[in-house]
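dumping this here before i forget
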Amino acid sequence: MNQLTSEQTPPDTSYLIDAPTLKTWLEDRAVVLVDVREPGEYANEHIPGAQSIPLARLDRSALNLESNQRLVLYCQSGKRSAQGAQKLAAAGVTDIHELGQGILAWKNAGYGVIKEAGAPISLFRQVQIAAGVLITLGLVVGLAVTPWGFALTGFVGLGLTFAGITGTCGMGMLLAKLPYNRRANQRWS
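structure:
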């Protein structure tokens, strides 16, 4: 993938752009900016003017491009936007741009983000917190009360291993059903 600066003209393929180029395009209203992260991540922080279309739901029909607008995808660090660009290119979309290093590059350039009030933390972080609490609780109960407490620690460890191997996390799916995650439209997929 090529790096595109504000002085270059993009050809009909996917290109990385930098944060100053995106800022200029946003000021010129010459861009449709799509955040391909999950809704909870979008609610926590997103670039002003971005619309949320998670990677799992990203397709050609979800885009509302006018002929004079460029399409720019971004995510947290650039991995999911690259997957999104490949998905759209396979569907026949051309002239796709990606914000290199995602929203991290935007913030590192000193540009502001929008944070929605009351947005829950991401499901990934919720799973990390819940697993950490359960493992610690199992250890404390195992050491102080009964050796059966170690079973909880082992069960959580097996669950995390299963999630890592299969990509299916039961704890994530359960947490996604909590009311505050449903309001933010967070899904574990």
